[in-house]
């Protein structure tokens, strides 16, 4: 992993910010165990799932209940960036806290590659949410599958150019990412994500949106599994 400790990156177009200016994050509250997280609430029905997706959902619930999500890959990420071909495999935290250089590297990876490579610090809670989902899918698949990041941080000016994008999108604050995964339908990520109640889960035709805003699921409470507008 190329360290960013000797490289600054831009935050919101305001100016260069070094690693030393990062908010101190040395210890995080642990995620709930799989048993505490439980299955998605009954208010989030997914009636449009195929039989294969229903089986996958059952496996995801079983995997979450059977183990502590902080083990078996939690705290690590395998990522590929669709826009520029970047890839990374990184261990970004332990039980005691986060590696600052790894958070910097992930924040740079999440940058807005379509707007001058501007970047913000990515909320570590988002990384934990994504890592929990990825490690759960790895437990089902039998090995880690890289998540393809299709959209990370967005600058306000680029967000305004995206049709249907929320004006106050969590992408603006480094608290969201859009993902897909090889060999699985994109919405498999969302089905696994619902088991953790980590924040927002949005289902789209070619990707799943994950964020650490309010607990919610869309479109229309996930009564339908695919959205054609909005994100």
Automatic annotation (TrEMBL):
Keywords: Cell wall biogenesis/degradation, Hydrolase, Metal-binding, Metalloprotease, Protease, Signal, Zinc. GO terms for biological process: cell wall organization; proteolysis. One of its GO terms (molecular function) is metallopeptidase activity. InterPro entries: MepK (IPR010275), TAT_signal (IPR006311), Zn_M74/Hedgehog-like (IPR009045). Pathway: Cell wall biogenesis; cell wall polysaccharide biosynthesis. Pfam families: Peptidase_M15_2 (PF05951). Residues 29-50 are annotated as: Disordered. Gene3D superfamilies: 3.30.1380.10. Its cofactor is Zn(2+). Belongs to the peptidase M15 family. This is Murein endopeptidase K.
């Amino acid at each position: 992993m190329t360290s960013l400790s000797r490289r600054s990156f831009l935050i919101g177009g305001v100016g260069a910010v070094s690693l030393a200016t990062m908010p101190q994050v040395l210890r995080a509250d642990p995620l709930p165990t799989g048993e505490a997280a439980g299955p998605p609430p009954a208010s989030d029905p997914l009636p449009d799932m195929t039989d294969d997706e229903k089986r996958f959902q059952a496996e995801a619930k079983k995997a979450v209940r059977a183990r502590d999500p902080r083990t078996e890959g939690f705290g690590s990420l395998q990522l590929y960036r669709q826009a520029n071909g970047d890839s990374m495999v990184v261990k970004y935290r332990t039980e005691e806290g986060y590696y600052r250089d790894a958070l910097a590297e992930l924040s740079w990876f999440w940058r807005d590659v379509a707007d001058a490579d501007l970047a913000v610090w990515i909320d570590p809670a988002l990384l934990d949410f994504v890592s929990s989902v990825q490690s759960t899918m790895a437990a089902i698949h039998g090995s880690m599958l890289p998540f393809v990041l299709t959209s990370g941080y967005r600058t306000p000016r680029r967000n305004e150019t995206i049709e249907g994008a929320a004006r106050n999108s969590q992408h603006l604050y480094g608290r969201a990412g859009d993902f897909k995964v090889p060999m699985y339908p994109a919405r498999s990520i969302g089905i696994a994500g619902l088991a953790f109640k980590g924040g927002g889960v949005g289902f789209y035709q070619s990707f799943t949106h994950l964020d650490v805003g309010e607990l919610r699921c869309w479109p229309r409470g996930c009564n339908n599994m695919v959205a054609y507008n909005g994100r």
